[in-house]
Amino acid sequence: MRISTVTMFEQGLSSMVRQQSEYLKVGQQIASGKRVVNPSDDPQAASRAISVSQSLAVNKQYDDARVSTRNALSQQESVLSSVANAIASAKTGLVRAGNGTLSDADRSSLAIEIKGIYETLFGQANATDGGGHYLFGGYQDSSPPFVKDDISGAVAYHGDEGVVLQQVDASRQMPSSDNGKRIFQTVHASAGYLAQADADNAGNLTFTGPNVTDSSAIDFGSGFTLDFAVDADGDITYSTDGGITPIPYTDGQSVAVNGLTLTLEGTPADGDSIVVEKAQDADPNLFRTLENMIAVLDTPIETDADLARLQNTLSTSSRELDNALDNVLTVRASMGARLNELDVLDAVGDNRNLNYKQTLSDLVDLDFNAAISEYRLREVGLQAAQKAFVDISKLSLFNLI
């Protein structure tokens, strides 16, 4: 076979270029620290690396969402801690207000103290986060959720009942907030029963209770209304829920209806009434409870009816404050449980993050020991190709003539 000089030069050059390409490729891998520098280096590994990188990015998003959720829950938990302390202080003031030796001036001083607690709670209910968003407004977080009426001064909730959810893991959406209605205008499902005297009662009738005495009674727990009547002879009767059969009333009598017992003292006036119902059905409102307490403490005691109104209001408010405190503590416990869950999800996310990084490293990272050995081998190959090309290029018959 006849081999031309051109063929020898082309083959030598091709060998040098190939060796130089392999040499530079290994050098690029060492410089970048990656085995797969270009997708063509290992198409299958490059494809899997993209998928793993996407999973790693998604896991980072979940981690960021958990950080945001933790910050929001921690802020709210801190506020609710202050709310619980304020309610406890209000309950202490209520107990002091029940002291029969206090004068009107003493009760007015207590009313001022309760007003301070009221304003504190109002401020906490309208607390904001670091970005100016209101914590307890639900989805309506750009304006104060609790607003005072310009005329009556009563506080009303203007937020909604929405709960902001955060995707903190692939299969977990976690509430990052609780709306103000749930916190300040709701009671726990286990809350008991309340008795409330009508604001227009003119007698000096007071009550104690209600207490559960017969859970097996028909219609147990259903609310009822006691309506009192006084005839021309001064005889006092009462009826239940507008019943047509009046029942004689005596001072100190205990009335049992639907498994609930209410102890009554004093003398009612004609038309007086008392309503007994579940705490959940009584339109609970922490601010209204404090407003009622402030109003009754600011009212001078001039008649027996005024004294009865004070005692009945304090009795009802005492139960309402207990229910409000239980509700706030329940919400705080829920937040604590969510914070604990975030810790668990963080641990799981960290482990998942390590697994993704290890998989990604196995796919594209370089084994430097093997790469350096190959680098030296490619260098020797390139030098050999260059030496062979030089030697072959010197071959000529003219050198032998």
Automatic annotation (TrEMBL):
All residue ranges annotated as the Flagellin N-terminal domain in the record: 3-140
Membrane-traversing stretches: none
Compartments it resides in: Bacterial flagellum; Secreted
Keyword Ribosomal protein carried by entry: no
Superkingdom classification of source: Bacteria
One Pfam family linked to the record: Flagellin_N
Annotated keywords: Bacterial flagellum, Cell projection, Cilium, Flagellum, Secreted
Claim: Iron-sulfur is one of the keywords in the record: no
Similarity-based family: Belongs to the bacterial flagellin family.
Protein's name in the database: Flagellar hook-associated protein FlgL
Organism of provenance: Azorhizophilus paspali (Azotobacter paspali)
Lineage per the UniProt record: Bacteria, Pseudomonadati, Pseudomonadota, Gammaproteobacteria, Pseudomonadales
